[in-house]
Fold these 4 entries.
Entry 1:
Amino acid sequence: MADGLTTAGGTRSTPARNRWRARYRVVPWWVRITVVYVLARVLTGLMLLAFARVQAANSFTVQRPGYLSFASIWDGAWYRVIATSGYPSTLPIDPAGHVTENAWAFMPAYPFTVRGLMLLTGASFELVAVSVSLLAGWGAALVFRRLMGRFLDPARATFATVLFCVAPVSAMFQVAYAESMGLLLLLVALLLMVDRRWWAMLPVVLLLGMTRPTGLAFAFLVVLFVGAWAIRPASVRSTEPLTLRRLVPPAVVAVVSGLVGLAWPAIAWAVTGVVTAYTDTELAWRSSYIGWKELVPFTPWVQGFGWWFGQPGGTVLLVIVLAGFGAFVCMPAARRIGIELRLWGVAYLVYLLAVFFPQSSTWRILVPIAPLLGIVALPRSWVYRMAVVVAFVGLQWVWLSSTWWVDGYDWTPP
């Protein structure tokens, strides 16, 4: 026999492989995740640079821009405006009297953080904004691994984090967008919820609601969770009853999250004097698709699927997508990641169905349901795992090509 050894099950192992495994096990988990995150960001960075090399001059950048400039286009340009000039007190209006695209569509926590660091360091917007996203993304990866570890064994939790780092829209971790910061805060809030540290959630929920528009969705999550808690089997309720003392903390979190979800539209109203300043601004982004329409809750997805796929095919496809999502989060294997994470996926999707118009930025908007990657990470097959990683990396290229790269008159913002 060669220098390999054969186990009772017939699997060959070598001393070198055993030594590698032993060394791997003594490496702290956060070091492993940091290495994965850095390698993933280098890979995505090379993709971004490849597109930057063929980028023609446009309204955002010069021809063949550098990395920082290319990573600060699209919504990054709006965050630059906010970081340097704040929000307008007068809404821009087109000749027909409609509110046009403006800075009120974007929450203040990320650009104001960038502004503070710019004043402190004297660095450019591009450098500070991308750096904040990179660091927040790193923190999000570490918290994500901790969150997955609450439900999955270490190998699966680590693989779920690998998928998190190489996901099709993971370029968001290294561009001038608020997604990294928002995702970090969301994952911290979910981890605190899983640990039932309700009072510690309050400052996180407040900041989260001023970073990304998730306040109402998170409030709905807490309501769903309390409801699920109340209808558990009698045998479980008897050992962990839902008493008034236990109900108050999550109720406070739900109320605070709901209020912060309404705070930004109220602030926009107070500054501009227009009651519907925020919603009118959001509607401006969908006007290029379906024209100017009133916001009627739970109609945007029907309108959007009708625009993209026609009717009645669009509505049929929407029903299929929603049924597929429901089956995904309700299948027996999905229970492995806990009811909190599955309910978050449901709560966030319901929120999107109520207010969001599906367009080219849909894939980015779905970033907050990243905890559901824990379900995707369950199979142990190495063939499956490699195939998913390769598919995710390939989809990164597809996403960058179809949305981030500016190709002439481009109406598909990421």
Entry 2:
Amino acid sequence: MSIATAPTPARSSLPGTRSDLVVVGAGIVGLAHAVEAVRRGLSVTIVERDLRPVGASVRNFGHCCVTAQRGELLDLARRSRTGWLDAAAEAGLWAPEAGALVVARSATELAVLEELRDERGTDAVRMRTRDEVADALGRSADGRDDLVGGAVLPADLRVNPREAAPKLAAWLAAQSGVQIAWGTNVVGVESGTVHTSRGPVHGDQILLCVGHDLDRLRPAEAEAHGIQRCRLSMARIVAPAGFRGDAAVLTATSMLRYDGFTAMPSAAALREEVSGHSAELLDIGANVMFTRLPDGTVLVGDSHAYDTTEIPFQDEATNRLLLREAARVLGVDPAGVRVTERWQGVYASSERGPLLVRDLAPGVRAVTVTSGIGMTLSFGLAAATFDGALRTTV
């Protein structure tokens, strides 16, 4: 099922509807909470302003980045992994347990991976030789000199971001006691009631899962948490010959962005090293990584720029830089990379922490991932919400 053909259920019965739970937002965090509610026997109404999922949940890599998390986020990511696999079985999602391949092109990069292996164990971080990494990338035998080695993180999952949210929404719409109001704008929320452009919707519990758009509904809470919009440069390319793996592929810049890596003793030396030879990547906040879709095309990205209101324009120099670096990892000529799509990703971000979980009124809670790991944490957050285990943000 493509985004364009996502279902749009009838809305005639919406005004005055009462459910055990009302979820505002049909992104992956909202849908995961709805799925968890259904599993627990609750009736659910989902209210979504667009006619199908078009936000952060469909614009990313489809990488459930488990192992690179740390502390509480690692626990949530591990629980989310189980939720994703269960949802994949229920809703017919493509979700291979393909892991992630982290490519090392210097001794310092390899040291970070070895330190993570020493901390997490050889089952969680499986070191790979230069030739094993080259084979996984489909690189030829005479083009491997820039590789040192790497590691496989087998706990990581892949989903197709173009289909995951639409298919989950379709599965939910087919369940007894669930309705989804697409194309319905929320104009206000209070205990027991969500006020929409189509009339009131009532619920014993209400969850606001609207990501960076929390500032549209509750600006004071968004400002208190310092929520900004992170703007990303993304592209889809024709897969180079030989590259057929389903694992997400991460690089040194990825190791500079995830807490699991940055906590390692060699992380500071890695940042200095990357700054010395590729300062331009740090200037654009690069996370050079790529993932292959089931149709064989490859998602490539990404850069990071932050503002309260994102600008709509993409910088072509940034796009070329990301594609050049991805081509180098794949061992192909950047000039031969064929781009089929470009788009701007966006997600909520805050320097004050990766989660906003705040009770706004009795029975009304906002749940927003203020980092680029919403896909990763979604089902873990949902389970923790219903277990009462999710700490609120102060």
Entry 3:
Amino acid sequence: MSDAGDRSRRDACPGALQLHEAKDGLLARVRLPGGALSAEQMGVLAAASTDLSDGELVLTSRGNIQLRAVRDPDDLAGRLAAAGLLPSETHERVRNILASPLSGRLGGTADVRDLVSSLDTSLTSDPELADLPGRVLFSVDDGRGDVTGFGADIGVHAVDEDSFALILAGADSGVRVPRADAVAVMLDAARGFRRERQGHWRIAEMPNGVEAVLGHVDHAVGDHPRVAVETSVEPPIGWFVQDDATVALGAALAHGVLPARTALFLAAVEKPIHVTPWRGIVLLDLDEGVAEQVVRVLAPMGLIFDAESPWVRASSCVGSPGCAKSHSDVRADLDAAVENGEVGDGREHWVGCERRCGRPRGEVTDVVATESGYQRS
């Protein structure tokens, strides 16, 4: 089979170089493999948002960051490249990699941080994989099941410290590989999807997609019955004592929006940051006293450290005026619903139209704006 069918549709997925024209201006999406950001990189993004955009960093459900209303794309690209956030112009939109935020620090079966960096480096070094669709998603789960639940096209899930299940289209493929081959197997699968996809954007969309992709996996060392690996889509919110007795702080954000000023305060802590696919952040490796100070300073600035907050359960698309297709100012409407205690006990995603952009995984009630008001489904 060939991939000639993909020529009929343009891949419009935005990136840091290919920007999307939204109603409120140009939108740039900065890929953060594994969600990882240094303090210095967060500072660069905050400054770029203030100088070149609308003063906000929008966190996405793939652990990436968006800037809206970008005024100078070339200046933005230059700043990102200088900060190490744009290591490849050809592959920048395919670096969609989710990873367990607390891996190697607390819990999990295996530390997967080195696998994330190796996957990113190997992915961007393969010329063929520059042609992957920008919607393809990779995941590297340390065994706790937090990111496998996001339904990645291609991923690995730790079974024990040295063995991983190959995940395809969000499910166990039945293939088990040693740690040393995990990245090679994911790249085999990625090349297989590129060659077989026939214009499809995701493996799950393909007829017999998993079987077609498996035909290209040369590094597999064992087959096992396919099982439903345990997954959880609960976000890390609150205070976590890491294995080395330092502290990680997990926080939610209203609408997944991080104001540039708050981002600068995060950068000033000078500790690693993880942007999560729950559109929140985890600040890592803090001394206890510093962690207490961070909570005192940043909670009033909008970081939500309370796992019982309605903002942990409620999310939204951008709505009007940022999106021309939206029937309502979704953010303002959700703000009012939270203020009035109108968000239910379950997870809700508020959207301005039937496209339901940004919808999180798992059991979610969609609250959809129509010309006659909101409808739940």
Entry 4:
Amino acid sequence: MKKITTLIIATTLTLISCGSDKKETVDNTPAIVVKISGKSTNDTSPYVSASGKIESENSANLSTRMMGYVTKVNVKVGQNVKAGQQLVSINNTDLLAKKAQVDASITQATAAFNNAKKDYERFTNLFAQQSASQKELDDITSRYEMAKAGLEAAKQMRNEVLAQFSYSNITAPFSGTVTNTFIKEGDMANPGMPLVSIEGTGKMQVVAMVSESDIAAIKNGMPVTINVKSLNKEVTGKVIEVSLSAKNTGGQYLVKINLDKMNKSILSGMFVNVQFPIEKTKTTTNTTTVLVPESALVKEGQLTGVYTIGNGNIAILRWLRIGKTYGNQVEVLSGLAIGEPYIISADGKLFNGAKISVQ
């Protein structure tokens, strides 16, 4: 009996000592430093405004009408070019051979024409002296006209070949800057395939998209204020074109605006906000539009969301229903309230439930 009691006590002590070795798991993962914004802004301006983009007044994607290997690309992206400057050369050996054939045809047609012309003049004089018949004169006249037409046809063939050379030597249609090159030496150029993109460095214009509720009040010549977002600068301009159809623009109307003064710091592709001097009506004022920067959005497949801050400083991924895009901002239709904070950037990879530290 004494041995059994001792065994039970030893077993109990062993179990107690094993239980005391268990410790609570502590999450020592460092918090991810994030920046937040509570500026899910709404459009409270009393005037009609629209987002747009700066574009060059002159821009072109240059292509060719012939097929051949690219022998030389004479320009680089960012290079300034002048009108008529050669940009791309395409192999034109076949055109050179065809030109030589046409030149030989012209020589042959010229000789035949000169011979026929002399015969025509000779028989005309003989017919005037009644030394040649009308039938002989008609035959010589016919041969002369055929030789003349043959020479003209050979010359037009030469013009056709020379026109083809313009498609093997791509030149700049206007002075500007090369914005992109789509090919390199040795590539095969195909008809209609873009080779080089060029934009004029002169006048800049704004292309803005206006909603159907506001387009009726916008007229040509209307002065506007343009806010260049990346430069935090305001410039002025005038409306020069107003589209009356939204068929190919997603339900919005295209408006073009010329800048009053050029500024070297304003570059093509910059996003702007255009303010038209038209007071909003009750039907056009939308005080619940939430706009968030596109860089803050998280996309997984067809879902779009944003990280918000949960209790205990953790990141919570919230899915949103988004609407139109205004420059670098996106309209949030549901899922985020005005003024509600959300994460705009992080020093590490965020995930749902991650510990965060607000900077």
